[in-house]
Design a protein that fits this description.
The complex is a heterodimer of chains A (203) and B (249). Chain A is mostly helical and 203 residues long. Helix content of chain A is 69%, strand content 1%. Chain B has eight helices and eleven strands. In chain B, the strands form two sheets. A nine-stranded antiparallel beta sheet of chain B has the order 4-3-2-1-11-10-9-8-7. A two-stranded antiparallel ribbon of chain B has the order 5-6. Chain B starts with a helix and ends in a 5-residue tail after the last strand. Classes of the chains: A mainly alpha (203), B alpha+beta (249). The interface between A and B is large, with 60 and 57 residues.
């Protein structure tokens, strides 16, 4: 077998971008198969974590594979000037998660029942907080499940993915102002619920 | 503790198991190949056009395989053991191994005997000794790495081999391994042979005419085997590689 020569000048652009190279108009990192592979390597871990958080670890791989496949197929529609790849992938994953509403509800019920992940760092500062956080799990999970799906998407893209309003607007294809209003609505509902219970726990 | 913290606490951070990335990558690749095949049922002329187009668009290239491996390598394990260790089966029968501690001590396993390495470093590049510290301070930018390595070599014909050596025969940090994969992706002398032995095969020539083939697993970034064809044929298959607290035994 003679094989194919693998060096091609085209991929320099993709590489420069993945490495954070600065340029006035960013190239589409998904333009070629190589850029796609690099994007997969760079973002698989966090996209998997996000999907596993929302749909549970057992079903995460299906949805993550579909996310990257969708990204590849729709790469012509990706506009690097408007969104970074990371936010765009979160958007695709979020839309796919939306097709599994019953699974998400089931996952939330399970999260409400089980103890918090001991691997998750932080928040050891106060036993009282720990206690209240523990006791709130079922209510918090139920409240999240009751939110409108679109409000929950925005809330979780902030809380779990740490995306900015700007990134969420482009990732979900909604106006900037809508991100704020959905987030406010979701936070208000949760805060009302959590406020009540924390008063009770500390009382 | 605001509601965002409560939410993070509730969800935790489930981590993918170590093989998940490899499995998902294979699925994505397989789905892309299936898509390519589905084009081939078109009528003859359209098929030729479509196949040319789609293969150009989505067939995994050697470069994409190496860059995927680079992506995985970059997020690889930082050193977390006392010894850097590799164990290989040479020519299908002989087990050879190496344990190297950061303080310079090293032991080899050959013909069932463990021997401490004396009077030289456990690592070399084109016959030149390399210390742990030299390997760890190699550039993490692919261009800079290629320049540095090229400067250490007596002949340019050894560049591909020296760079690939950083992937598996030396305790290179994750960022250096990633840079080595990326630098290799740019070398015209490195050829992609396609899937082989549950990995992806690449080959290049050595100055003496030997054709060296490495099989890598892009999903773990590990080198799985080396095969030499030519004046002195031989194979090495990696059975263990990485950091460990278990010393020579």
């Amino acid at each position: 077998m003679t094989g194919e020569t693998i060096a091609t000048p085209a991929a320099w652009t993709a590489r420069a971008h993945v490495h954070g190279g600065t340029r006035s108009s960013p190239p589409n990192v998904l333009d070629d198969a190589d850029g796609f592979a690099a994007v997969f390597g760079a973002h698989f871990g966090e996209i998997h974590t996000y999907v596993a958080q929302r749909l549970g670890p057992d079903h995460a791989e299906d949805v993550v594979a579909e996310t990257f496949l969708t990204a590849f197929r729709k790469r012509a529609r990706y506009d690097p000037a408007r969104a970074n790849v990371r936010a765009w992938l979160y958007g695709i994953a979020t839309n796919l998660i939306g097709k599994h509403r019953r699974l998400e509800a089931r996952t939330l019920r399970a999260l409400g029942r089980c103890a918090p992940d001991p691997e998750y760092p932080g928040h050891e500062d106060s036993v009282a907080r720990r206690v209240s956080a523990q006791s709130l799990r079922p209510e918090l999970a139920a409240a999240l499940a009751e939110l409108d799906r679109r409000d929950r998407d925005v809330l979780l893209l902030v809380a779990l993915a740490g995306l900015s309003h700007d990134e969420i607007a482009t990732a979900l294809g909604i106006p900037y102002g809508t991100v704020g209003s959905r987030l406010n609505r979701a936070r208000k509902k949760l805060r009302a619920l959590l406020g009540e219970i924390e008063v009770f726990v500390r009382g | 503790m605001d509601e965002m913290e409560h939410i993070k606490d509730l969800y935790g951070r489930p981590r993918p198991d170590p093989d998940a990335q490899a499995r998902v990558w294979r699925r994505v690749m397989a789905a892309r190949r299936r898509r390519r095949l589905s084009w081939l049922v078109l009528p003859a002329v359209a098929t030729a056009l479509a196949a040319a187009f789609v293969i150009h668009q989505s067939a995994p290239s050697g470069r994409s395989v190496l860059l995927a491996a680079a992506g995985t390598a970059a997020s690889g394990h930082v050193p977390d053991g006392t010894y850097w260790h590799i164990k290989k089966v040479r020519d299908g029968s002989q087990v050879v191994g190496l344990w190297a501690a950061r303080d310079g001590r090293a032991w080899t396993l050959e013909q069932g005997r463990i021997t401490q390495v004396k009077g030289r470093s456990a690592f070399s590049m084109a016959g030149r000794d390399l210390t742990f510290q030299q390997i760890e301070s190699l550039p993490t930018d692919p261009d800079a790495l290629r320049e540095r390595v090229a400067g250490m070599l007596p002949s340019k014909g050894l560049l591909a081999d020296a760079l690939s050596g950083l992937l598996w025969t030396k305790p290179s940090p994750p960022a250096v391994r990633a840079a080595a994969y990326r630098a290799l992706a740019d070398l015209p002398e490195v050829r992609y042979l396609g899937e082989r032995d549950r990995g992806e095969a690449f080959s290049y020539a050595l100055p003496d005419g030997t054709q060296r083939t490495l099989v890598i697993d892009p999903a773990t970034s590990q080198v799985l085997s080396r095969t030499d064809d030519g004046p002195s044929p031989g194979t090495e298959r990696v059975i263990e590689a990485g950091w460990t607290d278990r010393g020579p035994r």
